[in-house]
Amino acid sequence: MSAVPDRRAAVIAGLGCHLPPDVVTNDDLTRRLDTSDEWIRTRTGIATRHVVAPGVATSDLAVEAGRRALDSAGGGADAVVLATTTPDRPCPATAPDVAARLGLGQVAAFDVSAVCSGFLYGLATAAGLIASGTAGRVLLIAADAFTTIVDPADRGTAVIFADGAGAVVLRAGDPAEPGAVGRVVLGSDGALSGLIEVPAGGSRQRSSRTAAAPGEEFFRMAGREVYRQAVGHMVASSRLAAEAAGWNGPGDADRFAAHQANARILGTAAGELGIPPERRLSNIEHVGNTGAASLPVLLAQAAAEGTLAAGHLLLLTAFGGGLSWGATALVWPDVKPC
Ligand code: ACO
Asked: Per UniProt, what is one GO molecular function of this protein (predicted)?
């Protein structure tokens, strides 16, 4: 019988992602917005992005990514955590529907709402489920159909956001194993919640059928101020995560994976952390900002391409609405994404 570790760590055992097939180019956007391919490329780093077809919902993306992660892990899960900004409907959570469609039966299933930081909040939640013995294997999916809440007439957001889903399977294991999730540094600043918001559709201001101002159900972002906040919090949380992992500092990272919000933000944050360009993972050029899905899609694509390999010291960080942020540092395991 193998020795039982003092602490049950959550270990990454499977990985997958799914992007909807429809692609929107910058030139497509210039046909309906006062913008240009040049502005979008130089200010955001984005050239194309994947978007859902009408009628496709977050759960549809989540089921595809979840199935791939389960195949990659070669087994099931006894809990499903779905990080999303765009649940299929306000009530109930979308995770139980996803679990049922994946054939996982009557397992624990719930949503985590932390906007673009959702994957890291979900990782901490999944690790807690495993550490407490509540679950043995957790399917963590991060999925967003972000274009369903973006105002198509708002050039400040419509050029950035896109749709997709990524997932990991976490199993119980030893804290010293590659793939073990250690401390996840998390933070929030609700005093600045208005910088990134969908004003209506909740209990404060109901849907536009009853709200005073139609259009309040669209997503809004104070881009310039959010940019400033994003760099500061991703840098500070990355430093804490590197320290918690026992590294000399963030510069030890073989690979740096940050929420793909904007290529300039990523460049600035990585520069401040002392991480050279060849160690920065990025897919923003052809994926855009997929909200909560951003990090696991990036990891799945990088692992498939081989730019992220077993044994790499990986630093992960994200920032989003809430405001919310997080970071964690781990040794990348030998997993094959599906
Ligand atoms: N095309 C052309 N011009 C534009 C566009 C566009 N698509 N969007 C804005 N502009 C204009 C503005 O109107 C402004 O014009 P003005 O100078 O005449 O007033 C000018 O460009 C500069 O505007 P800024 O908002 O200062 O542009 P900036 O360089 O900051 O880029 C952007 C805007 C891309 C939104 C950037 O601020 C950004 O990426 N912010 C952070 C995004 C982020 O990290 N979000 C958090 C995670 S996402 C989440 O949680 C949901």
From this structure: beta-ketoacyl-acyl-carrier-protein synthase III activity
User: 40 CA distance to ligand 1 centroid (A)?
Assistant: 9
Instruction: State yes or no: is 262 an active-site residue.
Output: no
Residue 261 alpha carbon, nearest atom of ligand 1: 44
Could you tell which of 43, 228, 262, 265 is best to mutate to test the pocket of ligand 1, judged by most ligand atoms within 8 Å of the CB?
A: 43
pTM, whole model, 2 decimals? Answer: 0.95
What homologous superfamily is domain 182-331 in, according to CATH? Thiolase/Chalcone synthase (3.40.47.10)
Map out the domains of the chain as residue ranges.
Answer: 9-180, 182-331
Side-chain half-sphere CA neighbours of 338 within 13 A: 16
Residue 283 annotated to the active site: no
Does residue 136 carry a pLDDT above 50?
yes
Residue 134 has a CB neighbour count (10 Å cut-off) of 12
Q: Around Cβ 31, how many Cβ atoms within 10 Å?
A: 7
